[in-house]
Structures are given as C-alpha cells and as structure tokens.
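tool_call: predict_structure(chain=1)
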Amino acid sequence: MSKTVVVGHPSSGFRQVEQMLLTWGMMSPSAAPSESLTPQEITGAICRSLNVPVFSESISAPNNIETGISPGNDWCHLIEAFFAKRGENAVWCWSDPQMVHLLDFWLKSVPDLYFIFVFDHPCYSPIPTTTDVDKACETQGPYSAESNNTANGWFEYNRVLLSFYRIHRNRCLLVEANGVLNLKEQFLSCVNDFLNKGGAQQFGTVSLEDSAQRGIQSTLSTIEVLKYFYANLQIDISRELTLYRELQKEASMALPDDVSARMEPMKILGAMQDIITQARTAEEILTARNESIAQLEDKLGSQARKHIELGAENELLLGQLLSAQEEVESYYSENRHLKNVYCPWLHSAASQIRHSLPYCLGAEILSSSRAVWKLLFLPVILWLVAWHHRRDQKKLPVEMPPLTTYPDYEDALKIKSHLSYKLGIVWLKHIHKPWNFIVLPWALLGAYVQHRSGRKANTASQGSAS
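tool_result:
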C-alpha cells in the first residue's frame, strides 16, 4: 500500500492535480462511518491545537510558515490506526495545503508516504481582482500593498517546499502546475517512475490527445501579460521570480521555456484588452462615486445651514430657560424665607394636628404612663405642656387657612383617630370642673379600651375581606 499527498500553495491549482491522480486510479482515503477524522482533518486538528494558522484555497498563505512542529506520539498512533484499516493493494492519494507546517512529522509518522509538491508562477498569486479595483476606487489609492502581501505568502510557502525537497528527493516529486495540466501523459509517466523508484505500486495508464504545445503557449502568454501588468502597477516580484527559476531548475517536471518565443500575439492582445476593459470599468466606478461624493457634499452643506439655524433657535430657547430658572429660584428663596420665619409644621394639616394641644397632652399622658413617678406629677407636667403650647400659639399668624384647604387633609383626619389625640380630648373635657378629676382616670381608661376595641374590629374586618 502506497500513499501520496499533494501539497501546494492555495493558488497553485494543486486540487486539479489531485483530481487528475484520482481519475487515473488512485483512491481518496475518506473516513469510514466508525471514524471521525480524515488525514486532512487530522492535520487541521493538529494545527488548531498548536495555534498554527489554518488556511485553504480561498485564503492566502500567511507570510510566515511555521515548520519543525512536533505534535506528539498520540497523533502518530491515530494516523497508524487510520491506515491500518485500509486495504493493502490500494494506492491512496489526497491533497492538503496545510501539511506544509507538518512535513517532517508526516515523513516520520508514515514511512511509505510520498509527497508531490505543486508550484505555479508567482504572477498568478498576487493577481488583482475586480474587488481589489473597487477597494482602490474607494480609497483613491494603489492596491499594490495587498498584492505584495500575497506575493510574500507565495514566496514563503514555496521556499519551505523547495528546502524540504532538496533534503528528501527520494520521497518528493516537484512539479509545475501548468506543466502538469498541459503535459498529462508526461506527468503520469513521471509519477509512475517516481513510485517505482520508491518501491510503490503503479496505478494505471491514460491515453489523452496531446494538445500540450498550445496549452503551454497560452500559459506563457498569460504570464507575460501579467508581468507587464504588475510592472505598470509598480509591484516588485523579483524575489518571487528568482525563487520560481530555482523551482523550475530543481523540478522533476517543469514548464518548458523554449516555447516562449512562439507565443500567440492575438492572445496577448486579448488579455491586454481585458485589462483595459477592467481599467475602464474602474474609471466608471470612480466617476460614479465622485458624483455620489458631490451629492453628499451638497447634502452636507444643507445640513450645515440647518445646523446654524437650529443653533440660533437653541440660543434663544436657552435664554428663555435661564430667565425662567432665575424666576423659579427667586420663588424658592422667598418660600424658604417664609418657612424660616414661621413654623415649618404650619405648611401641613397633619403636622398642625400633631402640634395641636389635645395631641400633645395625649402623647405626654402615654409617655408618663410608662413610669410610676411621672404619674404622681402628671397634672403638673400637663400644665407645663399647656403653658408652652399657649406661648407658641402667640407667635403664629393671626389667621391660618382652614385644614380642609391643605392637600394632606385626609392624613390629618387619620391622625385624629390616634390614641394620643383621643386621650388629650378626654383630659381637656374633664379639667374644667374640680369634681371631674375623680372620674378622669376612669374616663382615660375607657377611651383607651374603646380605642383598642376599635382597632381589633378593624383588623378583623380587614382579615375577613382578604
């Protein structure tokens, strides 16, 4: 059983090379129902566990490729168990661009694994798209920086592949993508010879119509056009071109250079016309967006004028608000002065009831009932309370508004039902005649009992209602 993995930059067309090998008889090692991971998923899981950047065909390779990673023996056992369940006579093939991080690990973990490294011309990697042109129109600046970043990713990726290939030539095959797609029979022969040298099993033959010369001419034409396009964009890919020449020199199957003199001029002209069309489209987009900017500027001017008008109106309203605030502050100061001149409790009906003579007398009776010695001097204490109350009443205004005019009149009525107020009323009723002092204690006790009975009745009625 032999195993072959196709590794290439996300833009190299490695997936087409994999499909070509699968068409010729190789088998894809898909996961069985009882298994959860394929070889590609194992590589991705290792990278995620070690915080290595994961990328695919739709994501450019990072500028720095991490190599020499050692995941551990548990992953080796997982890979061995995966291939142990596969047939002995099959020739397995899969592609995995992420494996560039784990080339040494897979080389040691799978002794019969062979690598096919696919590379392409650097001009295909940083090619500007219509989206890039739109971004350039939006920012009104060049978009060569993004292209240079993509070229750096291409350089780092293929540099790692070339270094590994030079050390392990007996386990690696280095091919140019366009050469493979245009010289399929030659590629099939090259792969079979490579596997035979390593003692692996051949996987079949193919008979195709050879249109290689026309395909290679078209590829070289496109490359020359892209070179001219990048030169006009001032994108420096000299380092990438040097590495591409080294890859061509070392490759097991390279793209021939001797056919470049026979490129088709009409294809070059067609490619140039496409580029001119894209440039005109970008110019039209830029013109339309400039018109949109002009319209937005007009709207901004009208909004600025409205803002000035609203600012003037706001200043007028602010002046009126300040004058109203000064008036309110004057009323507040006058109100505080009146409260300080007169007793504060006069501003509330409930407070007036609490400071009335019956309430003060009843509160003192309740307070004195808690100490026996105070009961002996209760008449004297109540006489002093009455004297102080009459003295305070002389300081009040001559006329006070009736209690019904106060907003808390209902609270004042509730306070009149307090025990203190009732006891004070009973005291004032019995002190005008000397012989009433004999029945005064019994009258106070009767008022107390009546108050307690009324409270119990109210509590019972509330409980039954709930």
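agent: The first helix runs from residue 14 to 23. Proceeding to next step.
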